[in-house]
From TrEMBL:
Gene3D superfamilies: protein ne1242 domain like. One of its GO terms (biological process) is melanin biosynthetic process. It comes from the Bacteria. This is MelC1.
């Protein structure tokens, strides 16, 4: 005969909650019936908007971060860069924009970031003072 234990009850509860979240039935704090997203700011102002032609890309930046010069600006070249070029101390950091509008680099390929500036800062931290070597 099977008895309900605390461990089984917690496991069943976790399974049900995970299923609800994954299917989009989780409600926001305000009681809205819309599913929650990982980045609520990403969807702000999109009501009734069907195209992406008017969207602005990431803004250019130029700053010193932890003693390294990081710069980023839209590029007109095609390819895997997502139309954006990032440099650390004058050397190009290869970046790519994902389908969900997050960014990755060759330094942090398995970690996503919201902006190219965040990618550049994370790369500087990861390099720990080492030089960025250009890809051949």
């Amino acid at each position: 005969m099977s008895q309900l234990t605390r461990r089984r009850a917690l496991g069943a509860t976790a399974t049900v909650l995970t299923g609800l979240v994954l299917t989009g039935f989780a409600r926001t704090a305000g009681g809205s019936s819309e599913p929650r997203t990982a980045d609520p700011k990403h969807n702000a102002g999109h009501a009734g908007h069907t195209g992406h032609a008017g969207h602005e890309g990431p803004q250019p930046f130029s700053e010193t971060f932890r003693g390294r010069r990081i710069e980023g600006a839209p590029s007109h070249g095609e390819g895997h860069h997502g139309g954006y070029a990032v440099q650390i101390d004058g050397e190009e950091l290869h970046v790519m924009q994902n389908a969900d509008s997050t960014w990755v680099s060759v330094i942090n390929h398995y970690e996503t970031f919201a902006t190219p500036r965040a990618v550049a800062r994370a790369a500087v931290i990861e390099l720990q003072g080492s030089e960025l070597v250009p890809l051949a």
